[in-house]
Amino acid sequence: xxxxxxxxxxxxxNQKTDTREAIVTRMVALLDQATDGGAxxxxxxxLALTTFFPRWYHEDRAAxxxxxxxxxxxxxxxxxxxxxxxxNVAISFGYAEKTPEGRHFNTSILVxxxxxxxxxxxxxxxxxxxxxxxxxxHQRLEKRYFEPGxxxxxxxxxxxxxxxxxxxxxxxxPETYRVLGLQAVEMVLIGYNTPSQNQRPGTExxxxxxxxxxxxxxxxxxxxxxxAVAVAKAGVEDGHHxxxxxxxxxPHGEIVAEAKTERDExxxxxxxxxxxxxxxxxxxxxxxxxxxxxxxxxxxQGPAIPPPEAAESESVLDRSFDELKHGYSHTLGx
Length: 334
Ligand code: CDT
What we know:
Blueprint: E1 3-10, H1 20-36, E2 41-43, H2 78-86, E3 90-98, E4 104-111, E5 117-122, H3 142-145, E6 155-158, E7 161-167, H4 174-181, E8 187-192, H5 206-224, E9 227-232, E10 235-237, E11 240-242, E12 247-249, E13 255-258, E14 265-272, H6 277-281, H7 286-289, H8 296-300, H9 321-332
Helix pairs in contact: 1-2, 4-5
């Protein structure tokens, strides 16, 4: 048994006026609660140190820089690093990163029990838009404030296992989990801030959003035989509601713990990383069962391109095997 006791530290809302220091104090309290319960690892949400600021439009892009950290740890986050080291617990949390070169990313880090940053991930799938949308009930300006991540989906060996990270919208994309799955990931850490309403009121509500959230995380865990820990910032933040639904999902895709509130709330679960072995050796033994010769489109094409209209195309059944084979070779360039 390779046991990792995980504390999924859901956070209630951070208001615009909350200081980093006040927010970190709440994070330290969750860490204390987690370590009292024997946690090896505490996982916090996306953009844990601030409000979910991409809902606010700044005409001058640089005016948003106050939401970003130019280094971590810094004075505000040092108490969390110090308490993690003192309590011998690893931590993972998300924040807005401004690099020394002036680049902006939506970032998560994984910090070992001794306080060393062992992993950094920068969000790849940024939702939303660049410009202000006057017709929308709220803005989702992640594409205005962040660049897409530039380091892919790395996996790291730590705590006797293989860990990966993803951030919010990434959890809806099977590619996220599969790229991690191909590195034999055993636990995926995911922070999120998910508004409970679509920008077009009446199209999607909290129940549908919670359903999609569970569906995505459970499918990703099952199909890659990995643990998944998805942690919300929840509740009414700056007058806008974010779903809760923090989850710990086992490698069979089953929810083993789920938050009941939309406040600061800790879930604790003892995860056995050896439980990932069964799926990885059977139905999802990628080496034996993946057919990469048929997956070329996934990494070579962004948008969906439908096949030609029926009138223009002949039926596949009318075509000889040789013709089809030639067609596939052509598509794949082999
Ligand atoms: N933070 C973030 O990525 N939020 C998005 C909102 C999209 S609305 C379905 C999310 O995927 O939850």
